[in-house]
């Protein structure tokens, strides 16, 4: 018996040691902080895609992306943006992340914010529907060369690269932006990353002030404090503003003045981290080992082609900057090292007193430009008569109030993130510059530049596949009928604005006997019931019907006699349900069509 006890003693010792090890591990696990809950609000522009993929590659034991909402009143059209986001999340194996877009709620004349306001319009123009003008959005070109046509389609790359996810926009079932935001922030402390206009975040904080305590910090990509703005289409009216803040200045003001801690990554910092020719060449040579890295490189290549970059090999900036991706890097480094005062691996930061200009002096003058005050005995939202919101509000990029005769720089300051003294300012932590790479003569002249590529190329949490690896037998083949010795009917050209009824008519024409109707071409009217990126639906229908021989022509994005930048006439079409979001997705059915090689 004694011998047996002695024989079992080593096993007993090992068992005790193992139990002790588990106990220590349990204590360590219990002491480890839970991952930071993250909510991203994005306008899905190309630089936002870079930021999203960088974010999705972060260590999930430290950062847990709970939700992504789409800012739908600037660089992306909601229907195209949400389906691209679903496919990106599918590629990255993150169908668990909630996605919110749009909504048909409104704001009453008395200033009551109803549930599910879609964020399609800036707060100053938001009524009880999704119909409205484009006071600020007209600064964003609607067509080619870096406009919404390119962002909606990612230059045509989106449908040629991304896999087809199981989720997609579906009318009446798609969660709204506000629904997703409220649910996410209500569930626990959450950090917000804002990469577009601030409309969605402002609606959340204004309609649900009790949830402010659950917002740990807001990281913002936007504004320009000590540098000029970047409104390249509207500099002659407003040389101070940056696009993200200009898209809804009053919303940005509300976020900044909400009492929630804010870290701002403005043009001051992003201007110091350009994409250089050397960086682009290095990206192409060595840093494309994952699907997400390849998608970023190919997207960047398309962007730089549009920017008319110089011939490869030349030194200097391409004219493109690491806007949103750099802001994401600054945010995650701050969260690791201390949001309020910790060091940052990628940026120099300092505290400044700033505010957002929402109207122009003199204050209190009612000139028909400011719906918060004009024609009202009581200002909307209880705003102060004669206060900072009561001046002239820029009505568009050609606002005569903003233009200065004989000068190419205007005087309006709407959307200017201005450094001020006194009580009007808010103490904000601001990134002022990107930290240089200490390695001399490197292709990566900034510390974040290399980190971005390293993270994208990590094998951990890499994307699973693209469209060609998801469907190994997928081939881009054009199908053209053989009409030799076939009698042809009356030649027809179909001019359509891509409303759902137009697509029904197109299919009818394609089914008609060729001896009766010979469809020769399709013309796309770009100022009707769908945004022009929906031309891809036409290509897909023609491909499905075996008629890749039919040419498709893209028309103007505005009505005849109207400027290219604007929304005259089109403003009468709803942006939400029954309008653009449904037409752009063909009520969710467009994803069921085969993908045409033409796009």
Automatic annotation (TrEMBL):
What Gene Ontology terms describe what this protein does at the molecular function level? hydrolase activity, hydrolyzing N-glycosyl compounds
Keywords carried by this UniProt record: Signal
Identify one Pfam family in the record: IU_nuc_hydro
**Which range is the signal sequence, renumbered to this chain?**
1-29
Q: Which SUPFAM superfamilies match?
A: Nucleoside hydrolase
Start and end of every Inosine/uridine-preferring nucleoside hydrolase domain?
A: 38-359
Record bears the keyword Signal: yes
Q: Which family does it belong to?
A: Belongs to the IUNH family.
Name by which UniProt lists this protein = Inosine/uridine-preferring nucleoside hydrolase domain-containing protein
């Amino acid at each position: 018996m004694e011998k047996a006890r002695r024989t079992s003693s080593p096993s007993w010792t090992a068992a005790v040691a193992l139990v002790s090890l588990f106990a220590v591990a349990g204590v360590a696990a219990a002491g480890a902080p839970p991952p930071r809950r993250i909510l991203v609000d994005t306008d899905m522009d190309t630089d936002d895609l870079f930021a999203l993929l960088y974010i999705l590659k972060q260590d999930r034991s430290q950062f847990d992306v709970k939700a992504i909402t789409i800012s739908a009143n600037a660089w992306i059209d909601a229907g195209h943006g949400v389906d691209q986001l679903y496919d990106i999340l599918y590629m990255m194996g993150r169908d668990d992340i909630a996605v919110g877009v749009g909504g048909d709620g409104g704001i009453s004349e008395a200033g009551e914010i109803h549930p599910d306001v879609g964020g399609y319009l800036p707060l100053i123009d938001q009524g009880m529907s999704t119909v409205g003008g484009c006071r600020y959005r007209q600064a964003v070109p609607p067509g080619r060369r870096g406009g919404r046509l390119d962002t909606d389609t990612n230059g045509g790359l989106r449908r040629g690269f991304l896999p087809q996810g199981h989720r997609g926009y579906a009318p009446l079932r798609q969660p709204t932006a506000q629904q997703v935001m409220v649910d996410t922030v209500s569930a626990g402390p959450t950090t917000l990353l804002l990469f577009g206009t601030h409309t969605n975040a402002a609606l959340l904080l204004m309609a649900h002030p009790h949830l402010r305590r659950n917002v740990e910090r807001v990281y913002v990509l936007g504004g320009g404090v000590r540098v000029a703005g970047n409104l390249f289409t509207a500099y002659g009216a407003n040389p101070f503003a940056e696009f993200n803040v200009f898209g809804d200045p009053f919303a940005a003001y509300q976020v900044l003045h909400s009492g929630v801690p804010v870290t701002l990554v403005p043009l001051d910092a992003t201007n110091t981290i350009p994409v250089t020719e050397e960086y682009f060449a290095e990206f192409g040579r060595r840093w494309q080992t994952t699907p997400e890295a390849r998608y970023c490189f190919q997207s960047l290549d398309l962007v730089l082609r549009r920017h008319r970059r110089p011939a490869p090999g030349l030194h200097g900036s391409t004219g493109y900057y690491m806007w949103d991706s750099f802001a994401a890097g600054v945010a995650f480094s701050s969260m690791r090292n201390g949001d309020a005062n910790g060091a940052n691996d990628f940026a120099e930061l300092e505290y400044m007193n700033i505010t957002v200009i929402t109207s122009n002096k003199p204050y209190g003058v009612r000139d028909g430009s400011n719906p918060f005050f004009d024609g009202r005995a009581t200002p909307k939202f209880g705003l102060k008569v004669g206060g900072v919101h009561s001046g002239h509000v820029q009505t568009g990029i050609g606002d005569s109030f903003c233009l200065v005769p004989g000068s190419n720089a205007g005087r309006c300051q709407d959307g200017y993130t201005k450094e001020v003294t006194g009580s009007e300012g808010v103490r904000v932590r601001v990134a002022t510059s990107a930290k240089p790479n200490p390695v001399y003569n490197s292709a990566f002249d900034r510390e974040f530049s290399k980190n971005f590529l390293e993270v994208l190329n990590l094998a951990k949490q890499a994307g699973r596949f693209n469209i060609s690896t998801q469907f190994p037998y997928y081939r881009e083949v054009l199908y053209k009928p053989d009409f030799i010795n076939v009698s042809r009917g009356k030649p027809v050209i179909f001019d359509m604005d891509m409303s759902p009824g137009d697509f029904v008519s197109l299919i009818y024409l394609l089914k008609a006997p060729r001896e009766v109707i010979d469809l020769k071409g399709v013309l796309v009217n770009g100022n009707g019931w769908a945004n022009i990126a929906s031309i891809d639906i036409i290509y897909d229908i023609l491909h499905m019907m075996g008629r890749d021989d039919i040419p498709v022509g893209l028309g103007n994005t505005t009505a005849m006699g109207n400027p290219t930048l604007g929304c005259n006439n089109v403003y009468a079409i709803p942006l939400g349900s029954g309008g653009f979001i449904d037409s752009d997705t063909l009520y969710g059915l467009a994803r069921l069509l085969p993908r045409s090689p033409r796009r």
